[in-house]
Amino acid sequence: MKKFAHQPRKRFGQNFLNAPHIIHNIVRTIHPQKEDNMVEIGPGLGALTQELLPLLSQLHVVELDRDLIPKLEKLDPVQSRLIIHQADALEFDFTQLASANKPLRIVGNLPYNISTPLLFHLLKITPLIKDMYFMLQKEVVDRIVAQPNSKTYGRLSIMIQYFCETQALFDVPPQCFSPPPKVNSAIVALKPYKIPPYQAVDFDFFTHIVRDAFNQRRKTLHNSLKKYLAPSLAEDLNLSLRPEQVSVAEFVKISNQLNVSKAS
């Protein structure tokens, strides 16, 4: 790949992937097909973009740094396959790129400073997404895939696992980037369920229950959720556990029962 002079910008959280073997592993893992509706978030200098482009009929990329746009345009001189959206991914309307028969496949090296809010942004449109492959801070990946009774299990684990199957794929050390970040990275695969295995009757209420529980994670659910509890219901639910001991399915069950109590 041709080298372009570009000073990475801290405000954009830019750490450019420059390890061919990692890029090859990512592409092999994604296994892109010609007609896939692929979107890359934060293509940067195009290290991954240029590997994906020959394999696809069309590739959308969303890049915030306008100074990188001319460099990306050079990867597809005839502008027939690469469609560049100069935009903030946190505000970008991904629904405009999807359709019922062309669900999105999303990939990206996400800046650490926006990774969590961007994940929540994308969770809103999971019915339009086939799968997602992201490079994230390893600590964030550990939290996403964490299971109950672990220190890393928390609100992020539950909210993403409610919508998606999650799998940590492989680690990426700092020396694979320019400039090297101060933390390790990892690749995670997120595959939205066509039908979520656990259905919250009131999803907004479910999010409040999970948030309130983990805001006081050292307390039992009985104490952290007491404002939602009627005395009779407290006896019916097992709320003696701390939130990190409670599975996604159990949180949904608790939320649904508390919601019924609230409505009655």
Labels describing this entry:
9 strands, Rossmann fold, Helicase, Ruva Protein, domain 3, 2 domains, 19% strand
Proportion in β-strands: 15-25%
State the end-to-end distance.
64 Å
Instruction: Tell me how many strands there are.
Output: 9
Give me the strand/helix succession.
EHEHEHEEHEHHEEEHHHH
CATH topology of the largest domain: Rossmann fold
> What kind of sheet is the major sheet?
7 strands, mixed
Radius of gyration from CA coordinates: 21 Å
Which spans have pLDDT < 50 for at least 5 consecutive residues?
A: 8-12
Overall mean pLDDT stands at 90
CATH class of the largest domain: Alpha Beta
Order of strands, main sheet, comes to 4-3-2-5-6-9-7
Give your account of this protein's structure.
- This protein is α/β, with parallel strands linked by helices and 264 residues long.
- The chain has two domains: 10-192, Vaccinia Virus protein VP39 (Rossmann fold, 3-Layer(aba) Sandwich), CATH 3.40.50; 203-263, Helicase, Ruva Protein, domain 3.
- Helix content is 32%, strand content 19%.
- The longest helix is centred in the C-terminal third of the chain and has 16 residues, at 248-263.
- It is elongated.
- Mean pLDDT is 90; it is low at 8-12.
Question: In summary, what is this structure?
Answer:
By secondary structure, this protein is an alpha/beta fold.
